[in-house]
Amino acid sequence: MEELNVTILLVEDDLSMLDGIKDLLEMAPLEAEDMLYHVSVITAYDGFQGLTQAREHSPELIISDIMMPKMTGHEFLHELRQNPDWLQIPFIFLTAKGEKSDYEEGRLKGADLYITKPFDSDAFLEQIKTQLHRSLKLKALQQQHIEDLKKHILQILYHEFRTPLTYVTAYYEMLEDGVDRPAEVVREYLRGIQAGCIRLTRLVEDFLLVISLLSGESLEKYQNNGCPIVDLQQILQEASHHPRNLSTQASVQIEINMPPKLPLIWGSSSDIFNIFTRLIDNAIKFSDHKKESNIVYINVLPGTDELRVEIKDNGIGFPEHVQNQLYDLFFQYNRGAMEQQGAGTGLTIVKGLVELHQGRIELESREGEGSTFSVIFPVYTGNIDPVDDKPHKNDETFTKATILAVEDDRNLLTGLEDLLETMDGIYKLEVLTATNGLEGMEVLKKQMPDLIISDIMMPQMTGFEFLQEIRKNLDWLHIPVIFLTARGEAVDKNKAFISGVDEYITKPYDSDVLLKFVKSQLDKRFRLQRIIGNTFDDLKQSILSLVTPDFRQPLSFVSEYTEKLANDLEVVQTGAELRNSLQGIQIGSSWLKRVIEDLMSLAELKTGEARLAHNLHLQKIPNIGVLLSEFVLLHERKLANEGARVHFTKMDPSIKPIYGDISTISNSIRRLIEVGVRYAVGMNGEKDIYLSVAQQETEIQIIIQFPTLLPDEIYFAVASLLASDIDNVVQHSIDLGPNLSIAKGYIDLHEGEITLENDGDRGCRFTIALPFVSKQI
Fold first, then answer.
1. Which long-range contacts (CB under 8 A, 24 or more apart) does 335-342 make?
2. Tens-place pLDDT, residues 576-610
3. Closest CA to 268 of 210, 311, 312, 227
4. What is the CB-side half-sphere exposure of residue 313 using CA atoms within 13 A?
5. Contact 646, 635 (CB under 8 A)
6. What is the CATH number that goes with domain 2-119?
7. In the chain, what's the furthest Cα-to-Cα distance?
8. Quick check: helix, strand or coil at residue 649?
9. φ and ψ at 773, to 5 degrees?
10. How far, in Å, CA of 467 to CA of 475, rounded?
11. How confident is the model at residue 730 (pLDDT cuts 50, 70, 90)?
């Protein structure tokens, strides 16, 4: 059984009550399923102290009285819920205020439980345990989803960058070895290199376009360059015959249905072309290629105020539960079976460009039958509404939500369904129905609701049995459940909250009160969903920002020299001439490989994957001097080509061992030398670099000494980077290049430190400090 220490914050102004509840909670561990929770209670006497304690201790659960001096429980709860970091902490009111109106007020303000004094100790502990266990399971699931997302993004980066890079490097090597082969063979190799360059270029440009959409740069271009689009027919024709689509068409035909005259829309022709090229490409990609023939329909439907363009396929379709995720950055549906689908940026770009044009995109899809993507643009009538960076909502101001209602009395079920579907407010509700728990389970397997309302006393599967199945399934654990039942005894309510229900309402019920609780549960659900979504988006954007315009240069270099060689192939007469022509491809290929490997290293550091690799490669290094000697021998030729000479000072053989990853330590030294060669050495012709090792009381220092100073601007920028944490690596990488960020990241994994000194007499020096024992093997 796994054991975990947890902290509960208890806020109560009655000191004897405070001590009694604290003793009760700490008396014995709380056992839930396969977990044993050891509770430590921190206390406060009012809401103000409670907030201070919450900031200092980050409790896993909070229990609070309501009637307290200085800050009441309601005010305390309100302040807590303003902080997104505290939104998921279960909050329980424990109070003497036991009127129905008091209960409703406390629950509607966001309390997860409302318990009145005096209370049953056993029931109280069971309810605490239920809240604690479910909350921690949800947090663990969210963390797992983040880790899965990191691995998924890394998998995409590895595949989408390294696969085409292999085309470039492998075909170059074959070309270099085959200088005397027939011209057609050489052309085939050149086509392979070009194919890799094209794929990489498309990938990089897609990433840069997503960054532009997120940063607002695309919006600025749209505002400055937008104009009436008069040639939409031609744009659609060209998009349907674009090489990107033709290369994957195989058995797919494209049929365009549009009237001879279309109303004007406002925007950028290149963006509109981009939108439809991607959607047509997507329709072809997800067609059912097992069929002898497939047709993609492009239907243009003009209206008075809007222009609708439908891209319809009869392909594999998408299940309902993934349809809202299709536009998410890096999302891929069934990648194992659809290996050709790319990096997961296409529909993100489409949605961003459509909304930039004040339009919207809609999807109708059925698994096994196909999909229809509809793009709707406002018709241009001579006036342009001010453009902002918010999606165009048309006349919709509602949040769509799905509720599953489970009730065996069909009249009550119909009445509940009608009540929910006519609910006023910000939610537009779709109501799914079932007449018992078994039917409810079948509905859940097909569609994920945002809220469940269930009776208790039902045939085949009761509400309690239904709730138990919901809480056992990790995919459904997050769904709030309201019991709506005629069973109003305290023992039933206690049992329900111990079982994990979120709200308990007795029949006959007040419709207004029910709707208030429905809204409260949906508000909490969607706010939490937004916060989790923002966390995912921040992670995606931080990794996406690692892709910079610097990629364009080596790609252009390789592509330019490959094209030149292909054009001049007929006039190349000797192997020497061919090898000379290959030099440009070699330089660009090596440059491109380095840029991509740097990207991978930064992404691994950002996602934590580098730490996993570090732990696997950690070993005892008996003598760091051997590593440095080998480093000098390995790199001296390359550095000599750059005019630099590396000198290693002999060191005491009795120096203490350290634990580390030889590969990443060497990598860090190389990168720091490259920084010095770039910024410090050569300013007065001196390019001698001195490596030495010093032993201190708790650490070994590897010193890299350069004869000249870093310029002040570079020095302060480098010092700032070295003093920052790894989360700031992205911006520093853009400013200074990736070498420093990667070196710092690797040394941080060793629990070490890199420092920089600028000494007017001796020049600049980097010092890598590594502890004698950073982690035992």
1. 338/285, 338/286, 340/248, 340/285, 341/285, 342/160, 342/203
2. 556 666 666 777 777 778 888 888 888 888 888 88
3. 227
4. 29
5. yes
6. 3.40.50.2300
7. 99
8. coil
9. -130, 105
10. 13
11. very low
Q: Choose among 30, 32, 33: nearest CA to 8.
A: 30
The terminus-to-terminus CA distance of the chain in angstroms comes to 26
Q: Give Cα 169 distance to the centre of its chain.
A: 31
Q: Which pLDDT value is given to residue 607?
A: 82
Q: DSSP code of 571?
A: G
Bridge partner list, 402? 430
Residue with tokens 């929910």: 420
Encoded tokens for 331: 């999302």
Q: What is the pLDDT of residue 166?
A: 76
Question: Which pairing describes strands 306-312 and 265-267: parallel, antiparallel, or unpaired?
Answer: unpaired
Which of 693, 690, 669 lies closest to 681 in space, CA to CA?
690
Most trustworthy range by pLDDT among 104-118, 248-262, 279-293, 636-650:
104-118
Which of these, 120, 61, 134, 722, lies nearest to 474 by C-alpha position?
134
Question: What CATH number was assigned to the domain covering residues 611-771?
Answer: 3.30.565.10
Please say whether the beta carbons of 572 and 190 come within 8 A.
no
Written as six digits, the tokens of 386 are 């001010």
The Cα 493–Cα 506 span in angstroms is 10
- Supply 55's token pair: 């900031």
Average pLDDT over residues 482-487: 95
**Residue-wise pLDDT tens digits, 601-657:** 888 888 888 898 899 899 998 888 888 888 888 777 777 776 678 888 766 777 888
pLDDT computed for residue 74 by the predictor: 96
Region 266-281 average pLDDT: 93
pLDDT over 70 at 245, yes or no? no
Average per-residue pLDDT in the chain? Answer: 85
DSSP structure class, residue 29: P
Tokens of 127: 């309810």
Tell me how far apart the alpha carbons of residues 452 and 440 are, in angstroms, rounded to a whole number: 9
Both tokens assigned to 74: 């309601």
The CATH code that applies to domain 146-215+548-607 is: 1.20.120
Q: Can you name the residues that pair with 307 across neighbouring β-strands?
A: 302, 377
**In what helix (H) or strand (E) does residue 754 lie, and over which residues does it extend?**
strand 753-759
Dist CA 742 CA 154 (whole Å): 16
Smallest Cα–Cα separation from 24: which of 133, 118, 121? Answer: 121
Contact 37, 130 (CB under 8 A): no
| Nearest partner of 443 among 263, 452, 352, judged by Cα | 452
Per CATH, 2-119 and 399-519 having the same topology is answered yes
CATH, range 217-378: 3.30.565.10
* 3 state DSSP class of 702: strand
Distances (CA, A) of 35 to 4, 113, 290, 494, 500: 7, 22, 49, 22, 16
67/125 Cα distance (integer angstroms): 22
Structural class in CATH, domain 399-519: alpha beta
Are the C-beta atoms of residues 267 and 222 closer than 8 Å to each other? yes
Sorted by where each begins, the domain ranges of the chain are 2-119, 146-215+548-607, 217-378, 399-519, 611-771
Query: Are 609 and 154 spatial neighbours (Cβ–Cβ below 8 Å)?
Result: yes
Q: Is 158 exposed, middle or buried (0-12, 13-18, 19+ CB in 10 A)?
A: middle
> For residues 358 and 394, what is the distance between their CA atoms, to the nearest angstrom?
9
Residue type present at position 513: V
The 10 Å CB-count burial string (b at 16+, else e) for 615-645 is: eeebeebebbbebbeebeeebeeebeeeebe
Residue 740, phi-psi category: left (phi > 0), alpha (psi -120 to 50), beta (remainder): alpha
Distance CA 349, CA 733 (A): 25
Rounded Cα gap, residues 35 and 114, in angstroms: 25
Helix, coil or strand: residue 385: coil
